[in-house]
Amino acid sequence: MNIFAELSLVLVVAAVLSGIMRILKQPLVVGYVLTGLLVGPHMLGFVKTGEEMSIFSEMGIAILLFIVGLHLNPKELKHFGSASILIGLFQILFTTLFGFLISQFLNFSITESLYIGLALSFSSTIVVLKFLSDKKDLEKLYGRLAIGALLLEDVAAALALVAVSGIAGGDAGTASFLLLVIKGLALLLVVSLVSYYVLPKLAPFFARSQEYLFLFALAWGFGFATLFGLLGFSVEIGALIAGVSLSILPYSAEISSRLKPLRDFFIVMFFIFLGFQISFDSISKMLVPLGIFTAYVFFIKPLVFAVWTEILGYSKKTAFLVGTSLGQISEFSLIFVLLGFKVGHVSEDVVSLITVLGFVSIALSSYLIAYAEKVYPVFIPLLRIFERKVPNNEVDSTKIYDTVLFGCNRAGYDFIKIFKEFGTQFLAVDFDPDIIKELTTKGINCIYGDAEDAEFLEEISIEKAKIVISTIPEFETNNYLLEKIRAVNENSLVLLLSYNIDDAIKLYENGATYVILPHFVGGEFAVKIISDAGFDVQKLGVKRGEHVAYLRERRALGHAHPVWNHNK
């Protein structure tokens, strides 16, 4: 079959098996992996090489880590960096040591035992981030701690890969390792300077077109990933740093929302490719080690994470959720042992063992993550032993705004003046990069985004806002926004703008709290001024002066009054 036909067949099989998984209420990831196993060379053999899936898989990993980086603003990393480092570091040391000892007990060589121990210590960034994202827990405390630990593991995995290459290369390899460290530090310095001093000036140009912003983000992410790959690092690290470099921009949420559908497709291909690689030819004699290591990764490793997290002062529930999130081995584990096989450090049996262990642990972990809240009560007695009497105060960093304003020009300007004092509890959203730039310089909490983008609305947790105001005059946009809010929140105040009476009535019927019709409001306001002033010319003169000053201020800002359509 040609490439198009092969990929079409793979997607059809994936859709069928995933549909069955959904009917059975199982994680869809299991269906993806089974697809790769079924169509691969070890079963039906519909796909022979899997090169295309391998490329798609790598692209999926890069996009996923790029999106993760977009959520890791360097200014916010300090809130969970040290705890995550300690959690990740202790877990790597403990899991590697005991994994090594178990391997020795199972009669693996010292070198193979070291490889297995390290491979068991790495958790799957792809699996954890996918489930945290699906559960909308990326910004929760346990999610941030898990991500921090994963980042440390990814760095350790990258160093391990470089070290293996260095050992294989002798003295030249050691020199290459030191040179790589120097290049890495230089790259981070350059990226930091560009991120803070160059990108903020160029970003408004990119953001003038959503299509171009999407293209720029892809080019930036893949460009950095490729650059890091060419310089001897992993493309995954490059993609992550590329995302972090854009995270300080007010357009990061919009970029993230635009990339998510693309990410979902390529991540499906990653799991299919994982199943594609599974071979049972040499695993029959590995059943006992496979069972022991599966129990170790699925039970002992999460317990280590949980206990150590509690010792650091977090509550037993946070500790449990951190542990259950990281109870599997990583895609880096597979790469790591495969490199060891290429340089002659481990046998093919070890490669097969780690590959199948990866599938089994990811499948089991998927269930554990999905049902963690239901399983948690069973482990409370055990976790209570290690919990501090007075745990640390824990606050999720999920960004919830009391008031969200869509549209900051003309009518929105007056709301901004009122709500500015709310600080971070107020969020201004606009689709014009020039307005975002101006609001940013004034210290107003703002973000670039589209009110009709469902992913973006989820990013800012619109359903949790107490007040939502839209000064966008388009009925379709306001009605879509209203439907999204009312689907999950009947109590929030939703104020919308309309230039049309019929549209205003429809918005009321669909649940709007209040609809502003500027021309009628203007008449009501004029009547109120005259009523308050009566026949006092001096009072009216004061109002006149205030209004003239206000109009000049708006003219200076470039605000123009919309042209009235007499047909409406």
UniProtKB/TrEMBL annotation:
<feature type="transmembrane region" description="Helical">
    <location>
        <begin position="145"/>
        <end position="169"/>
    </location>
</feature>
<dbReference type="InterPro" id="IPR036291">
    <property type="entry name" value="NAD(P)-bd_dom_sf"/>
</dbReference>
<keyword id="KW-0812">Transmembrane</keyword>
<feature type="transmembrane region" description="Helical">
    <location>
        <begin position="211"/>
        <end position="231"/>
    </location>
</feature>
<feature type="domain" description="RCK N-terminal">
    <location>
        <begin position="404"/>
        <end position="518"/>
    </location>
</feature>
<keyword id="KW-0472">Membrane</keyword>
<feature type="transmembrane region" description="Helical">
    <location>
        <begin position="84"/>
        <end position="102"/>
    </location>
</feature>
<dbReference type="GO" id="GO:1902600">
    <property type="term" value="P:proton transmembrane transport"/>
</dbReference>
<feature type="transmembrane region" description="Helical">
    <location>
        <begin position="175"/>
        <end position="199"/>
    </location>
</feature>
<keyword id="KW-0813">Transport</keyword>
<protein>
    <submittedName>
        <fullName>Sodium/hydrogen exchanger</fullName>
    </submittedName>
</protein>
<feature type="transmembrane region" description="Helical">
    <location>
        <begin position="320"/>
        <end position="341"/>
    </location>
</feature>
<comment type="similarity">
    <text>Belongs to the monovalent cation:proton antiporter 2 (CPA2) transporter (TC 2.A.37) family.</text>
</comment>
<feature type="transmembrane region" description="Helical">
    <location>
        <begin position="53"/>
        <end position="72"/>
    </location>
</feature>
<dbReference type="Pfam" id="PF00999">
    <property type="entry name" value="Na_H_Exchanger"/>
</dbReference>
<keyword id="KW-1133">Transmembrane helix</keyword>
<dbReference type="Pfam" id="PF02254">
    <property type="entry name" value="TrkA_N"/>
</dbReference>
<dbReference type="InterPro" id="IPR038770">
    <property type="entry name" value="Na+/solute_symporter_sf"/>
</dbReference>
<feature type="transmembrane region" description="Helical">
    <location>
        <begin position="29"/>
        <end position="47"/>
    </location>
</feature>
<feature type="domain" description="Cation/H+ exchanger transmembrane">
    <location>
        <begin position="13"/>
        <end position="364"/>
    </location>
</feature>
<dbReference type="GO" id="GO:0016020">
    <property type="term" value="C:membrane"/>
</dbReference>
<dbReference type="GO" id="GO:0006813">
    <property type="term" value="P:potassium ion transport"/>
</dbReference>
<dbReference type="InterPro" id="IPR006153">
    <property type="entry name" value="Cation/H_exchanger_TM"/>
</dbReference>
<feature type="transmembrane region" description="Helical">
    <location>
        <begin position="265"/>
        <end position="280"/>
    </location>
</feature>
<dbReference type="InterPro" id="IPR003148">
    <property type="entry name" value="RCK_N"/>
</dbReference>
<feature type="transmembrane region" description="Helical">
    <location>
        <begin position="114"/>
        <end position="133"/>
    </location>
</feature>
<feature type="transmembrane region" description="Helical">
    <location>
        <begin position="6"/>
        <end position="24"/>
    </location>
</feature>
<feature type="transmembrane region" description="Helical">
    <location>
        <begin position="353"/>
        <end position="372"/>
    </location>
</feature>
<dbReference type="GO" id="GO:0015297">
    <property type="term" value="F:antiporter activity"/>
</dbReference>
<feature type="transmembrane region" description="Helical">
    <location>
        <begin position="286"/>
        <end position="308"/>
    </location>
</feature>
